Each structure stands twice: as C-alpha cells, then as structure tokens.
C-alpha cells in the first residue's frame, strides 16, 4: 500500500468534484472549489475521522469494501477505481458484468433523485444502489448476500420476495423476471453470471424451469406495477428505466400519476419512510 500516493489521489479527486456534481448545495460560505472531506465521508458511508486519516497518510489499510465505497463516493470512472485499488495494494477488481461499481453517469443522475423512488440494478437483478424512498417502498436490498443478491433468484426461491405484489400479479411478474434473466443469458452466454443464476434456479424452482423451457422474451423494459405496501396500501406505479450503454446496469425510477391516490400514498411513504429510518 502506498499511503502517500493514495492520500494524494484521494485529495486530487475530492478537489476536482464540485458540490453540484454530487447533488449538494454550494452554500455561501464555501471557500474551496471542491468537496469538503466530511462530504466525501458521508457520500462514501464512512466516518469523517476515518477519511481524514486516509488523506493525512496515517489511516489504516482500507479494505476492498472501503475502497469500493470511496470509488462510489468520489464518482470515479472504472479506470480511476482500478488505480485506487492498486494504490491500496489490491489486485484490480474483475472487469465485466460482475462489477458492483456504479458508473459515474448513473451516480450523477441518482444524486438528483434523492426524493424519488429510484435504484440502480445490475443486468442480473442485483440492486447496486437505492434512494431512501426506494428502500421504504421495496425494502433494503443491501442485506442480501450470495445468489440472493439477485432479485430474480429471490423471486423464485423466497416467498417473502413476492409479499409486496398482489397475488393475482405473480404469474405476470414471474414471466417478466424469467424473461429478463433469459435476455442476459442470451447476451452473455454460458459461463456468465446469468448462466450460473439460471442453473441454480433450474435446480430449485419448477416454476422457473417451466418458464425457461418456453424461451421467454422480454416485453416493455419496465411495465407498470402494482405494489401492496404494508404501511400505505396498494400503489399503482409507472416505471421508467435508463439502461447503461454496455447494458450492465439500469437506473429504475418508480412514479405515480399526479393527483392519483397512489401519488398521495407515495408521498405519505416518503414521510413515513424518512421517520422510520431515523
């Protein structure tokens, strides 16, 4: 680990970022052009003291998880992320579709959606980042590990994954989930993460196996959904999706028609969810 160069690199990227780049107000008392250390710490989900020590060349040896968090907080490109890992004394993370790194363009858009129900999802249904309202609406997906990180896997193996959907919508949702995974498998081929998930589901879920044999094909990128939330009741939501150029991840935003009952319930959930998270 090269502490001095790591500190210099972190400082250079922090000073290059503007508050507007990460959805923060500039404020009238800001003297420096870049971000403050405490702002980077918050964006990276770590303590201010921990980040300060890294920039002061006296911090602990950061784990790969900490470096990945810093890469997200500083909105690093994949090339910059790889350099950060090398400075930290680690091998460069595997490139390709297994990477958990949210690209800077997606992050910039997410920064402006803090009050919306939005999340970044990988090509195999792994949630990479959620806004607070998305957590309140859909649950905290960061708690899952292994194959269960994939929403697709949970849908066919964990009954709790279906609780938020009305029972009469389960069949259509099953077809949509299977079709999405089938598209990823067709694109990436055998030996891919999509193939591993499909093999695991074929062994565990007769429902998935039957759908898979029919070669399901995706319909609309994100069809309207009905969600039965335990706190606010039934919500009828529209779904907008922005797909990354390499199709490795998508930004999904859930909205309701203004003036509708679902709109009022989503607004209520934004208040209830914020109070619950405190």
From TrEMBL:
Domain of life: Bacteria
Keywords associated with the record: DNA-binding
Pfam families, sorted: HTH_31, MLTR_LBD
TM regions (residue ranges): none
Positions of the HTH cro/C1-type domain: 34-81
Gene Ontology MF term list: DNA binding
Keyword DNA-binding carried by entry: yes
Keyword Membrane in record: no
Xref: InterPro entries: Cro/C1-type_HTH, Lambda_DNA-bd_dom_sf, MLTR_LBD
Full protein name: DNA-binding protein
Organism: Winogradskya consettensis
